[in-house]
Design a protein that fits this description.
Helix content is 6%, strand content 33%. It is mainly β. It has a 6-stranded mixed β-sheet, with no helix packed on it. The protein has a 5-stranded mixed β-sheet with strand order 9-17-16-11-14. The chain folds into 3 domains: 1-106, Sandwich (Immunoglobulin-like); 109-287, Cupredoxins -  blue copper proteins (Immunoglobulin-like, Sandwich); 308-442, Sandwich (Immunoglobulin-like), CATH 2.60.40.420. A hairpin with an 8-residue loop joins strand 24 (430-432) and strand 25 (441-442).
Length: 443
Amino acid sequence: MEAAFYSTSIAKPSFTLFFLGLLLLFANSVPLPDNAKTHSYDFVIRTAWADGPEFVTQCPIRPGASYTYRFTITGQEGTLWWHAHSSWLRATVYGAIIIHPKEGSSYPFPKPTRETPLLLGEWWDANPMDVIAEATRTGGSPNISDAYTINDTVIVPIGSGETNLLRVINAGLNQQLFFTVANHKLTVVGADASYLKPFTTDTIMLGPGQTTDVIITADQLPARYYIAAHAYASAQGAPFDNTTTTAVLEYKTAPCPAKGGGPIKPINATLPVFNDTATATKFTTSLRSPSKAAVPTEIDESFFSLLQAHQQGIPGVFTTDFPASPPVKFDYTGNVSQALWSPVRATKVYELKFGSQVEVVLQGTSIFTAENHPVHLHGYDFYIVAEGFGNFNRKRDTAKFNLVDPPLRNTVLGLCIVTWTFTQAGVWPWFSSSTMESGNYNH
């Protein structure tokens, strides 16, 4: 199977479809004025090389050139996506990747009547590369986006009584988003190409890079209903794009001019207010694996990794003193002294032993401002065993860990504890999936 990507005036998603267990050929032609590299977000492909980040695990695709990915998909079903992994080219170069059950198997829920991928994106009234270049030149923050998009503009058809599996992807650079469908319940069945224990909600929330699969049932009066998304903005005082993007869920039997009726205005959707942390938290903490999960419970303390600079004996590239815990203890979510605001430029490595069981506490801070921060790990899914607010306290909080059915994801937000088993050797980027904060980049 082949797919090509192009840079146009607005994101033109390229939906690729293939089956679990089959070999995938994914070729990317790049008639762009800039270098580019794509990242498939987030296949488990057993090797860190050709993982996508330019100048980290491979060289960028030169303008007019192409690159072929060839790998086998195993153990993942659901929705992922691919995008340029080169500065802000990701703003326009991305598409959906849909992994169906292999032949002879089925979904763990009744097969929906139809499926619709919905890519949520951010739009600037300027070249995104110019936006980030200006921010780099001045040292200021990049301009916020001017609008959000859903597949450009889309009509989602549905017949009365039908079900539609909406594969929702937040392909935006920086913003967490609330998503809803007017007058329709959303049954959540999967996220980040992993199935979930189904539950029903009015609204879902996705951070940059996250995907969520929801099923809607056409159980309302035949009409047109808005599908809508807008920002969830948790950072106090930080500017954000406060526009709303919409698509339309249209019943096949709804009155319309083509059928001799008048135009029917879509029924409005109700979204949470921009800073509704309670709704966002209720959603993320409702995610559960469909059955008992193989959560690592015995966490190892000896670590080792395979790095090219290490293998070839190249000195001065990195140091192996990346701390296992913050070297300076402070009230992470209180008033932070500005003496802690100055970072140190360094390349530090935390070495992991192959097969070790890893636990990472992701502690947000109020340096600059507190927010629900998205973090993405290449090459792995991980179990989210706990989420919360404030400062993590192991004695107090360990008892709250969900070691039975935690959700399996590749991108997470806020204060949380994640675990996984390190079974893929190499250098795997672990970084903020908010492009505004792309300096937060660990391996």
